């Protein structure tokens, strides 16, 4: 057993030894192979290196030879190119020499040509089919003068109805202007600067310079000469006419035909003869000429005029707070109608002479007013951002608007619109607003009129008219800073006899109207309110009247001058009129009284456009109540005396649209509700029980 194991161990060792020998042999063999391969690769690499070097040498040699060839080719190319350039330059120089010789020759020829004609008519200059080329001005004048003298001694021959007549150039009023004709022909090639003259002289070789002879012949002179020579052809047809006779009625003057000649045709033939310096015989064709306006056309014009006389014509100016109206007295005065010829028709129109006289002598003096500016003097006015209260300022002068009637433009407009059938026609008036200028040259923004308020207190008794004028003066020259709030009552102050007010009618709370101090103050606040609305300012407090007041009807805010609903009532401590200056600049308030009209002007910087639409009235309604009677012993028992009639009520509204310059648009509704009141009166006090028919308060 032990021997077997021993034998196995020896066998294993022998096997391992054998395997080791094999491995060693393999490793040796591998090394030999690798060594052999390395030696073979090295030999091959050395061979390839030698071959590469040899090839590189060949390539280098070839490259050198190629570069030499290229250099030689380039050198040859540039040599040929330079030779060609030299040849080309020589050719160009030769051509330049030839061109120079030609140009010099042309210059000599042109100079000689220009010099020759420097005092002569250029080629192809013609006058009366006579060639003036190469003649001096004096030679041409000497040539034509005897011809004209010879022609002037001749007479024109006319035939009419087989008879022969003659007229000299002098009798026909004909004159020749030889000097003007020659100067016109000579001007070509002799006017302008040097180069312009040369150009015209050269171009004259290719274009004709035909000058028409200057002759002075007048159609009216020819016509009159023929009439004097042959009176029987001097009768012209008479158009039918329409006049206003002594009875003040339209009368047709019949038309008349005539035997005459065509004077225009004769004139054209005379002129053609003059331009050719000939006196060919001219035949005057005598025939009957009919008038352009016959009697039937005149009668038709009378019928049209009669239709136009249906009503008088009203001329209006209703802008900028003014309301002026004038009348043309139709149909009473038919002399205002004139008849103008238009083709073969007679058209009735307003008389231009009478209308211009009316506009110039009557209307313009009533409308035209001088323009004036006002100046803020010696006052401390802050222009900082701090909000201040409205306050009085010292203003020298009154900013007065200027008005000027456009007479000619209005005349044309009136006549055109009258013919078109209109009977209420607006006048054209230039308007220049009065401005407020700052003496200290500080910009307060008082650049333009931004708001105008107007009302009419016509019909007021003396005390009420006095109060309106007295109170309006309290609001003159008030400066309102930006963002400041204006209170009407603050400037109105105490209303009593000791502050200068008089007794006039006012509305009590129950609707009864009776005298009190300051009656008419609401006319002032209403006028101010209208200026505020016209400027589009923010109204913070306003109350309409409780009753409809006729004094506030007139207002220049629409074509009807109806300002109903644009009123504001005030009462110290109870009702006020307030607004904020929401413009970017100061506002100056100025006022004035003109006749029976009150005006408020707001000057500032306009940053919006305002339109007012109204009034839109509701239906009238009555209170339905019995009269309110007060007992009195001045009347017999039961006797009733009405001291104030019942007043009807109604609602009215306006729409105010404000378009700001920044694009913002605001619409506001202005409402006024005028209530109805029963009648007021007195009743005689009775010992009998209360009369059930009346309510007594």
How is this structure best described in words?
The chain has 697 residues and is an alpha+beta fold. A 5-stranded antiparallel beta sheet has the order 18-25-31-32-24. It has a 4-stranded mixed beta sheet with strand order 35-38-34-39, with no helix packed on it. A hairpin with a 2-residue loop joins strand 3 and strand 4 (163-168). The chain starts with a helix and ends with a strand. The relative contact order is 0.06.
Radius of gyration: 56 Å
Structural class of the secondary elements?
A: alpha+beta
- Helices, by number, come to 12
Distance between the termini: 164 Å
Percent helix: 25-40%
Record the strand order, biggest sheet. 18-25-31-32-24
- Provide the low-confidence segments as ranges: 691-697
Overall body shape: flat
* Overall pLDDT metric: 82
Major pleated sheet: 5 strands, antiparallel
Strand content: 25-35%
Tally of strands:
39
Q: Keywords for this structure?
A:
697 residues, alpha+beta, 5-stranded antiparallel β-sheet, 12 helices
Can you give me a brief rundown of this structure?
With 697 residues, this protein is an alpha+beta fold.
């Amino acid at each position: 057993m032990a021997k077997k194991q021993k034998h196995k161990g020896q066998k294993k060792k022998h096997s391992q030894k054998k395997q080791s020998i094999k491995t060693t042999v393999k490793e040796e063999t591998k090394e030999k192979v690798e060594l052999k391969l390395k030696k073979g690769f090295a030999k091959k690499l050395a061979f390839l290196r030698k071959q590469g070097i040899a090839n590189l040498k060949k390539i280098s040699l070839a490259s050198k030879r190629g570069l030499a060839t290229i250099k030689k080719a380039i050198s040859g190319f540039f040599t040929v190119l330079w030779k060609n350039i030299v040849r080309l330059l020589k050719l160009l120089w030769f051509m330049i020499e030839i061109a120079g010789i030609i140009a010099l020759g042309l210059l000599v020829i042109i100079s000689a040509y220009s010099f020759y004609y420097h005092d002569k008519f250029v080629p192809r200059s013609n006058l009366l089919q006579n060639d003036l080329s190469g003649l001096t001005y004096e030679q041409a004048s000497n040539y034509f003068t005897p011809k004209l003298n010879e022609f002037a001694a001749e007479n024109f021959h006319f035939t009419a109805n087989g008879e022969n007549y003659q007229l000299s150039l002098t009798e026909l009023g004909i004159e020749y202007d030889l000097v003007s004709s020659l100067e016109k022909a000579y001007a070509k090639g002799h006017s302008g600067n040097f180069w312009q003259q040369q150009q015209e002289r050269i171009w004259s070789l290719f274009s004709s310079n035909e000058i028409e002879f200057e002759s002075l012949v007048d159609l009216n002179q020819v016509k009159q000469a023929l009439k004097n020579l042959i009176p029987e052809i001097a009768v012209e047809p008479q158009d039918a006419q329409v006049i206003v006779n002594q009875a003040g009625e339209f009368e047709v003057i019949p038309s008349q035909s005539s035997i005459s000649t065509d004077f225009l045709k004769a004139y054209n033939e005379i002129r053609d003869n003059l331009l050719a310096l000939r006196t060919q015989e001219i035949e005057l064709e005598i025939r009957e000429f009919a008038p352009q306006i016959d009697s039937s056309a005149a009668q038709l014009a009378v019928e049209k005029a009669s239709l136009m006389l249906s009503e008088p014509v009203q001329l209006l100016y209703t802008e900028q707070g003014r309301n002026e109206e004038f009348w043309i007295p139709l149909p009473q005065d038919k002399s205002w109608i004139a008849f103008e010829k238009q083709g073969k028709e007679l058209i009735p129109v307003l008389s231009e002479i009478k209308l211009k006289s009316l506009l110039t002598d009557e209307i313009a003096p009533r409308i035209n007013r001088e323009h004036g500016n006002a100046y803020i003097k010696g006052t401390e006015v802050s222009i900082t951002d701090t909000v201040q209260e409205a306050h009085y300022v010292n203003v020298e002068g009154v900013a007065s608007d200027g008005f000027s009637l456009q007479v000619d433009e209005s005349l044309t407009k009136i006549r055109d619109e009258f013919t078109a059938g209109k009977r209420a026609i607006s006048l054209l008036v230039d308007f220049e607003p009065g401005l407020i200028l700052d003496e200290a040259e500080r910009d307060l923004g008082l650049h333009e009129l931004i708001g105008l308020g107007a009302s009419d207190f016509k019909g007021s008794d003396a005390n009420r008219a006095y109060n309106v004028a007295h109170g309006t003066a309290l609001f003159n020259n008030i400066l309102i800073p930006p963002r400041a709030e204006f209170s009407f009552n603050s400037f109105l102050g105490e209303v009593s006899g000791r502050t200068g007010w008089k007794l006039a009618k006012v509305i009590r709370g129950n609707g009864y109207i009776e005298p009190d101090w300051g009656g008419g103050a609401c006319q002032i606040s209403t006028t101010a309110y209208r200026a505020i609305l016209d400027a589009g300012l923010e109204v913070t407090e306003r109350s309409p009247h409780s009753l409809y007041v006729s004094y506030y009807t007139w207002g220049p805010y629409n074509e009807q001058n109806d300002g109903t609903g644009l009123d504001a009532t005030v009462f110290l401590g109870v009702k006020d009129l307030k607004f904020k200056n929401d413009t970017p600049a100061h506002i100056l308030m100025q006022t004035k009284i003109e006749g029976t009209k009150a005006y408020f002007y707001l000057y500032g910087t306009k940053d919006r456009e305002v339109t007012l639409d109204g009034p839109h009235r509701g239906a009238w309604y009555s209170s339905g109540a019995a009269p309110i009677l007060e007992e009195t012993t001045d009347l017999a028992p039961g006797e009733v005396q009405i001291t104030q009639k019942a007043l009807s009520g109604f609602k009215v509204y306006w729409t105010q649209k404000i378009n700001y310059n920044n694009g913002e648009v605001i619409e506001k509704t202005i409402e006024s509700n005028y209530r109805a009141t029963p009648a007021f009166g007195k009743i005689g006090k009775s010992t009998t029980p209360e009369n059930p028919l009346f309510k007594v308060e």
